[in-house]
Write a structure and sequence with these properties.
The complex is a heterodimer of chains A (299) and B (374). Chain A has 2 domains: 53 residues; 235 residues, MetI-like (MetI-like fold, Orthogonal Bundle). Helix content of chain A is 81%, strand content 0%. The radius of gyration of chain A is 27 Å and the shape is globular. Chain B has 9 helices and 20 strands. Chain B folds into 2 domains: 177 residues, 3-Layer(aba) Sandwich (Rossmann fold); 111 residues, OB fold (Dihydrolipoamide Acetyltransferase, E2P) (Beta Barrel). In chain B, α3 packs across α4 and α3 packs parallel to α5. Chain B starts with a helix and ends with a strand. In chain B, a hairpin with a 2-residue loop joins β4 and β5. The chains are: A mainly alpha (299), B alpha+beta (374).
């Protein structure tokens, strides 16, 4: 009697299990249909069109546009763009690391307020933030008033409409992204690890260098990749604060579309930019992979 | 408090326990001298006075919020005392930073470095002390062997089970030959069987190293199993420091009595061998406590049936609840003393009494323990 009941139960259970799995599959497929269609229509099709256009479009296929890109003017633009992105990334990392450390390790109303203000600044329009830098940095702006008032300079410094302005603006706009990537990584580091290192005889500096920093490295690397990629493709801030002295590759694309009306050239430039970004992502994957086996690799 | 006397008597008994074998190398004593830690106006640790003998295994036991974690942090050096002194050997370490204390700490979650493999984890305390590669290799091999983890030296931490991680943490804490070993609920995350195994290993490791161990836990069974002496804490104060046996049979106060197993606590007053309950029932007792007192009767001391000795008082109670728990039968009685719980070992002669049955019960006055009521 008892055994019959058990077999019955198992059999029914198995049948229901199969039913449930099928149901799960149907739900998965249903839920995925919309995003797949959206991805195709909004990303894959335009991307295919872009690549097609870069190889001459209706007049192609040819690689004329890519040949044009090897001109010195474009190489210089690319060089400046990479340089700008690199230094902005380094500056963001150096400023964000101690900031994120404080936010992650100090539990107080102040740290919550600072995180909130970072989130708010992320949600503000980049355009508005860029224009406010003009007001701050211009010849009779706040910064120059203070510097002159304090007698540090006799003449107003030109802080905007040049590369200085672009650096200041871009570091300011991209800094929150670095902090926001570092912060969760640092929060995830168990504070007992540092305590444990101290109890084992490591000085605070050694504990940081040998334990905390290696564990926070993955956040620093992903933050840097994020900031670098955003910096390469940044348009608004260099265009407004650069005053024509900080032209980036993205501004060249705008020029190709609106002034030269050479769509294949603009498409080719975009494809190259895309490939560079992809390359960085691949390198990141490799570094992150290496980082995961860091302990073994170092020995 | 009654504390000073019981601590003193326990000191002698602990010496008897640990004096059985010769001490190998090993740790130094740890003394707490009126150590206190205040957070705002509340005492997390209040006037902690305790001496841990060299090579002694002492557990600090208390419920959560009793201040035992603060004691641990004070010893490790992550918290500074508000007043009092902490001595390691005869050196005052209360103001010495954690990395200069030379105390091995095993943390509750093991706190192994996830980016280093087993060997590098154990080597860490030696590397930061600047030992030679040769010496490091030798000592790491020694420590890993002691915890039977020699063949796992090249594993990553994430590849280890909880028990293996526990062993690595232990190896890392003993590898630099610390002056004392501090453990914070090291077995809390392990399953029951493994926990019992690890208790044995920790105990035998401590014995063979002659290491002084301070073991912080909220698990009575673990504390009783492992320790020479147990220091019971509640509300930031030491309640009793004693050998495991005395804590059960001779608790210093109702808190300790209730903390170790079940206890029938009967309030009343005592005078010259007679205890009068709040309801006026008079019972013979031993011990020379007078005034307000609490009588502690363990459930397994309660017997049923006819008196076995002439002056063995018997009372009547009505059965209100019975339940089987493994090999024992719990019976709850409604009596003139209030509710009395009893535990009977199950054998062929005893049967479960029906609810409402009136039963004769009593206990040997020698086995009742009288405590002063605070």
């Amino acid at each position: 009697m008892n055994s019959t009941a058990t077999t019955d139960g198992t059999a029914r259970g198995r049948f229901r299990g199969a039913d449930w799995e099928a149901q799960q599959r149907r739900v998965t497929v249903t839920v995925l249909i919309l995003p797949v269609i959206l991805m195709t229509v909004l990303f894959l099709v335009p991307l295919g069109y872009l690549v097609w256009l870069s190889f001459g479009g209706p007049n192609g296929p040819n690689i004329n546009s890519y040949k044009q890109l090897t001109a010195p003017v474009y190489l210089n633009l690319a060089y400046f763009t990479l340089q700008l992105a690199f230094f902005v990334t380094v500056a963001c990392a150096v400023i964000a690391y101690p900031l994120a450390y404080l936010l992650a390790n100090i539990e107080s109303a102040i740290s919550r307020f600072m995180i909130l203000s970072l989130l708010i600044s992320l949600s503000l329009s980049v355009l508005a933030r860029t224009y406010s830098w003009i007001i701050i940095l211009q010849r009779n702006g706040v910064v120059n008033d203070i510097l002159q008032g304090a007698g540090l300079t006799s003449q107003p410094l030109s802080l905007v409409y040049n590369q200085t302005g672009v650096y200041i603006g871009m570091i300011h706009i991209l800094l929150p992204y670095m902090v926001m990537t570092l912060y969760p990584t640092m929060r995830a580091i168990d504070s007992s690890l540092v305590r444990s290192a101290l109890s084992l005889g490591a000085t605070p500096w050694t504990a940081f260098r040998r334990i905390y920093f290696p564990l926070s490295l993955s956040g620093l690397v992903s933050g840097s990749i994020l900031v670098f990629m955003m910096a390469i493709g940044f348009f608004v801030t260099p265009a407004i604060l650069g005053g024509g002295q900080a032209n980036t590759i993205v501004m060249a694309i705008q020029n190709q579309v609106q002034v030269l009306v050479d769509l294949p050239l603009a498409a080719a430039t975009s494809v190259v930019l895309l490939l560079v970004s992809l390359l960085i992502l691949v390198v990141y994957e490799k570094i992150a992979g290496v980082e995961r086996i860091f302990g073994k690799g170092r020995r | 408090m009654t504390l000073s006397t019981s601590a003193a008597s326990a000191g002698t008994s602990a010496k008897g326990d640990s004096g059985t074998g010769p001490t190998v190398g090993g740790g130094v004593g740890v003394s707490f001298d009126k150590l206190s830690k205040k957070y705002g106006n509340t005492h997390a640790v209040d006037g902690f006075d305790l001496t841990v003998a060299p090579s002694e295994f002492l557990s600090i036991l208390g419920p959560s919020g009793s201040g035992k974690t603060t004691v641990l942090m004070l010893i490790a050096g992550f918290v500074s005392p508000t007043s009092g002194r902490l001595l390691l050997g005869d050196e005052d370490i209360s103001r010495i930073p954690p990395y200069k204390r030379n105390i091995g700490v095993v943390f509750q979650n093991y706190a192994l470095f996830p980016h280093l493999d087993v060997r590098r984890n154990v080597a860490f305390p030696l590397e930061v002390r600047g030992l030679s590669q040769d010496e490091i290799r030798r000592k790491v091999a020694w420590a890993l062997d002691r915890v039977h983890m020699g063949q796992f030296a090249d594993r990553r931490i994430s590849q280890l089970s909880g028990g293996q991680q526990q062993r690595v943490a232990l190896a890392r804490a003993i590898v630099f030959e610390p002056r004392a070993l501090l453990m914070d609920e090291p077995l809390a995350a392990l399953d029951r069987n493994l926990r019992v195994d690890m208790q044995h290993e920790i105990r035998s490791l401590q014995r063979s190293l002659g290491q002084t161990v301070i073991y912080v836990t909220h698990d009575q069974e673990e504390a009783l199993n492992l320790s020479d002496r147990v220091a019971v804490m509640n509300h930031g104060r030491l309640q009793q420091v004693d050998a495991p046996k005395n804590l059960y049979l001779r608790p210093a106060n109702p808190f300790v009595a209730g903390f170790f197993g079940e206890a029938n606590l009967i309030r009343g007053s005592a005078e010259s061998g007679v205890f009068t309950t709040e309801h006026g029932v008079r019972l013979p007792v031993t011990g020379n406590v007078s005034g307000k007192a609490v009588l502690c009767v363990r459930p397994e001391m309660v017997v049923f049936g006819e008196p076995q000795q002439p002056d063995f008082p018997m009372l009547q109670g009505k059965v209100v609840e019975t339940r089987y728990r493994g090999s024992v039968l719990h019976i709850v009685l409604d009596t003139p003393l209030g509710q009395i719980r009893s535990v009977q070992h199950i054998n062929t002669t005893n049967t479960e009494p029906a609810e409402g049955t009136i039963m004769q019960f009593g206990w040997d006055p020698e086995l009742g323990h009288l405590m002063v009521q605070e």
